[in-house]
Amino acid sequence: MDIKNLKLSRRHALKTVGAGIIAGAAGSTGCSSTPEKSKGPQPINGIMPWSNWSGNQVSYPTERARPRNLDALVKLLKETDGKIRAVGAGHSFSALVPTDETMLSMARFRGISHINHETKEVTAGAGTRLAALGDELWENDLGMINMPDINTQGLAGAIATSTHGTGQQFGSLSSFVTGLTLVTASGEVMKCSATENKDVFDAARCNIGSLGIITDLTLKVRDTYYLKERSEMLPIEEAFEKMEKLHLTKSRFEAYGLPHAKHMLLIEFEEVSKEESDANQSEAVSGDAYETFRTLADVIDMMPFMRDIVMNIAPRTVGIEERYGPWNKVFGNVRDMRFNEMEYTVPAEDGLACFREVLNTIKEKDIDIIFPIEYRYVDEDDIWLSQFYKRPGAAISVHNFHDKPYMTYFAEMEAIFDRYQGRPHWGKIHTKTAEEFAALYPQWEAFKAVRQRLDPNRRFINKHLDRIFPVSS
To answer: Which residue of 311, 337, 338, 444 could cross-link 290, Cys pair, CB 3.0 to 4.6 Å?
Structure first.
């Protein structure tokens, strides 16, 4: 394989695994099936439904608002008194957005409004999609310090849930915020930073939409750069040994554990010069990962006795693969597989032990799952409700296809994460309550005090947040 002449998507190796398994299985059966497309939620009494990306959250808002500017937003908040939930790209799997009252979109608050090249800071609208932000920064010879691999989220939603990329030297997106504008339930406009309304700033950088409406955010950025991405499939014990070393030496890497398999995929990132990146450009590899893995799932559904065999055949055929390019193109990936997800962050020093227990439990309990488990490191921060508050973390994500059962599987995984004092990603599925969060977050009461002060009538609290912030007795 001439790896210099390939430009591969980050998950090409995983897609290759799926394709290899399907090829082997199809040779035995001569057929495969594709599931029928779901029609999705339908209108009720003339009210159009809202659903998130995966389809696991649905609601019927009686009002939909899309204010055109700050004045219109302030007027809306001052002249109404019902419940309001802000909506972005719908990439949260937990029930942060659903409401049967007013759903508010910040889609008109988009784009970069100010660049300070001297301090390397940019101000962007809350509704700016991460992909668009990346493109605008690139055009101005700037780059995000780090970025998640899904780039279709809205900026405010990503900040509200401490969404993150990978790299033990890099914090979540929330940690790059140096200032923000928040409009409270009463219509008050607050400028927040480390020197202005600091308690609100400490709360608002990870706020799960419970404080008010953020209209813009100022982020620390850097000069633009290029990346090399290297993917390698390794025997599982060799992979764990290498991960121990990478944790100490590599600024960015991630891993994908394959259920019921004896191999693991490691992906490393390093910065390279423009010249090296340009010299290694080539045509992208096409392919539909969703169809590949769904067909694999269907084959295993038909022949469950073949699961462990086929899951250990294809990984051995995957070679080392490399990709080069601008930072925003290497970080960002098309997600053509819809799924539901749970993610917990455990202390970094316990990460590999927890990851190993996850993989062993899937095998020992014969959990019927083939979706890879993602493993990443993230640096600590000082944001009150961040999963990484005062604690470097190892983030472990488990998934299943959007139309497959997931709660029994996730419950098994959540029990493991609990043993390691895991903190759930706010935008992903969890069953935690206020009492449990109070034990996990040292600044829990401080956050609640700010929340109550800014929103005493609980206008930004939906049913999901009622469990997280119950009415005080």
So the answer is: 337
